[in-house]
Structure prediction request, 510 residues.
Amino acid sequence: MATMPDETVSVPPTVTSNNISPSQQTSRINGATIISIPTASADAIASFIWGSYLKTTGAHGAPVSFFSHAPLQDMWGQLTPGMKVEVINTDCSHGLNDPKEKIFWFAYIVRVEGYLALLRYEGCDDDSSMDFWCNLCNKDVHCVGWCGQHGIKLAPPRSIEHRQTDWKTFLVNKLVGAKTLPDSFRQKIQSSLRCPFKKNMLVEVIDKFRVSHMRVGKISEVIGGRLRINYENSAGEHFWVHYASELIHPVGWSHVTGHEIEATQEYKTEAIKMVETNSYPANIATPDLFRQVPKLSIDDEQFKEGQKLEAVDPLEMSRICPATIGKVLKNGYFMLSIDGSSAEDGSDWFCYHSSSRLIFPINFCKMNNISLSPPLGYQGEFEWEKYLHETNSVCAPSELFQINKENTINPFSVGMKIEAVDMMAPHLVCVATVAQIADNLIRVHFDGWSDDFEQWIDCQSTNIYPIGWCELVGYKLEPPKQPEQENTESTKRSSKKSSSRKSNKRKRPN
Ligand code: MLZ
Prediction:
């Protein structure tokens, strides 16, 4: 992980002496121990409050530094307990002349969990009763000195106002020399949220109804680096995906790779022209914007058709299964089929790159003490040696796998809370917990949902985020399923164990 120079700043003596006014006399706005201050559009937030949930569950959020694709990942480690901020004061009356006027007060970080911090107002000392959770990217959190620079009033919370007679001297003692957020913190947030993909750009995207095929898609929305892609020539069907996902590619990729694509002849002709001339109109997302895969040299040994391996079932991600290389494409890509489950027409063959971290050499599960799901209908105990013999096949050489080429450090621990995309309904970002760790994988449990919904994903997946990410980017976070939802059709369907993968499988409904 890259480390950045410590850019946090110390508070100069002048900032504590200005614009501090006593709070005014109206009713207490928020007397609750835990409050949450919304960042983005109110609709996108509200229903779920991480702070209360962490308290109830006694859990911790995975640190922002674990997520290389997360905004501000490289500097978040500098935000540590004790650091001082200026934050909206929720225990005071608003300005007398302007009821909308916001009053601020000093606070310090007690604890950091993902993008959230437990804050304590200066002056509370050992009293934790007013501690509150706040997203540090919230627009009402600033470095010490900000209110002074912007002529914003500071006033102590009403409940503690009486505790000091000389607040100015108290603050000078508390704040001078203390660490605060970097001056340019807000600009850093803004620039970390920039995404190179824009609305109306065309891409090639996996067909969620027939995963062996790509389709042409047009970006209709971009939120936090996630793209809502509308399938061209469809009745409003769409697919949500992160811009660095392996499920989207530039125009012309299918042609170059030899992947099946459903598109008009006109599109195919144009795409070939663009690839050959390497010139793309403005509405086309250019190849440099996409996730880059390692280039293979012609001399490198490659995966070959018929070889067996273990893979996370892309359509039922709670399972790791024996699988077979179906067809080798160009540039290190190939189609993979899950043994015993493949649709007769090959419509569920799934494209992987040789550098994928969701494919494994045989006995990966055994070595990591996790269960391998034998091919559906397989009789007897599954043993690779026997199976290779029975199927008259060979396994893929273990040195070809990315997980053996690099030494990945999986930083996650079981029990850590995250926000995770439900890969079978990728428009949903849900409250989730790391349930299990195996090598580079984490098994994501969706809080409140049965184990059938769990998904194995790579620890560097762009489909998991630190807690508070949804609030930061303004995306709706799906709260844990409540017990009263237990009888919904969805629950009944998903918990019904079936011997047939087809009926057990959750389709990508999005
Ligand atoms: N009702 C849909 C979505 C369930 C979403 C669960 N997310 C953890 C289904 O049953 O597939």
Summary: Residues 394 and 477 are 45 Å apart (CA to CA). Residues 422, 424-425, 428, 430, 446, 449, 453, 490, 494, 506, 509 surround N-methyl-lysine (CB under 6 Å). Residues 1-5, 22-45, 489-504 have pLDDT under 50 and may be disordered.
